[in-house]
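pinned: reference chain
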Amino acid sequence: MILSRAKPAEEHEPEHQRTKAQKKKRSLPNLEEFLKKRDYTGAITLLEFCEGAGKPLEKSQEWIAYCCFHLGHYARAMKIFQELVLRPECDPLTWTHLGCCYFYLGMYQKADDAAMKSPQNSLQNRLQFHVSHKFGDEKRLMGFHKHLKDVVEDQLSLASIHYLRSHYQEAIDIYKRLQLDKGDYHAFNAYIALCYYKLDYYDVSQEMLQTYLQDHPDSATALNLKACNHFRLYNGKAAEGELLALQEKATPSFEYAQDIIKHNLVVFRDGEGALQVLPKLLDVLPEARLNLIIYYLRQKDLEEAYKLTQDLEPSVPQDYILKGVVNACVGQNHESPDNLKLAQQYFQLVGGSASECDTIPGRQCMASCFFLLKQFDDVIIYLESIKSYFYNDDTFNYNYGQTLASGSKWKEAEEEFLLVQSDDIRNDYTYLSWLCRCYIMNRKARLAWEAYLKMETSADSYHLLQLIANDCYKMGAFYYAAKAFDVLERLDPDPSYWTGKRGACIGVFQQIIAGHEPRESLREMVAILMNSNNAQVESITRIMKKWAKENRVPIL
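pinned: its structure tokens
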């Protein structure tokens, strides 16, 4: 038998009365629950509701600023902290929190000034550690580095500096060491995945990321990185699918990632919507400037690309590479030695650095550096070492073909040029001129002539005709040299064209006599000579006709 009760039994109430009572007893959600779920929007709603009801929670404004900061609303968080520091009862540590807002808004000097007004603390040291990196003050940075302790927050800060300085392996080592001590910190897997992504180990990055996503399937950062891995491993369409899935799963914690999603969609769609999205993000995402420059380069708008690089202070290899590419394009387009010299220096900085010298971009940079220096044998060595990674890459095959041709490796150059599939490249005059030169040097002058015949009449076709005429003459392909000089003479009565045509026709005549050219070609050579009004025509054709008659070669 139950002889006692802890509390008296309640009388049974009618159902409708019980429902009303339950409604009255409903309490407001707990702030801690919102924060635990990372639902910062919900937390702000709760805090503002309580303030509006005249029952603000303890340190309500501090908590609103905290939530705004974690949502990426740094400007609003900054304004709240600015108001708080003016209050006499304000906690002096608020200056550090204000400094963090300034830092994320790119106001590094103000961040440093705010941090100095705060009592010494570990967050202040980490903030000034990062500010020193932004200032490029190595001595000051090392000073704050000495005060870092062997605690998770400080070590994570150190790892992030390694990451920002492109020391990805050092960052990975710190994360893995921390992971051994703090195995329940799942975010380490995401950080390590990001480092492997930067090292171009996309498959390893994806593997590490999958471990994190099992526990946090709604992480905006992780899902975005997964999309980026898909972009590198597969294509833009696969990456876009991942990013759209991210948008569908959107929760309040995704709000801060909207700019990244918009930016990456432009990249995955190969620049579609670039002018609508990227200019607005120039001061928000560093990558937006880089990708807008790339967009302008693809659109062959060198002026706009060059303008954007003027405000770009290079800090990572990608920045130096892009500045090198833009300066190389401008230098070649405007025949500017200064821009070409700058480009060569940027490429050499990246290709010669210890961290990049053995990477694919690093070797591409050294190849570009030597190309601008016209040291083609060295270019071939570097491009040969990475050729297997770019077998179906039209741009690589085009550049490699030019390098081989510049090094007089005509057979290999022709093979590389013929691998190019892009119509834009194949219709480009530079490509056609190099390919025709390869044909002629490989004793396939007929193919060069056929390439000319397929072109429409233009300045490019005229220049290609000059190349064919001169190169064929030089290689002893006199038949096609004569045809080319004949067309040139009819287009422009320059005496040098008659000289070239005369020499080529006589060369064909000699080859016919030696048995190296079909006798039927003599008829065409006589007709080509007869197209000229030069006084020498009669004497030359008389000798040819006499030989034809003696050897029973019909020429009429």
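why pinned: Residues 1-11 have pLDDT under 50 and may be disordered. Residues 495-514 form the longest helix (20 residues).
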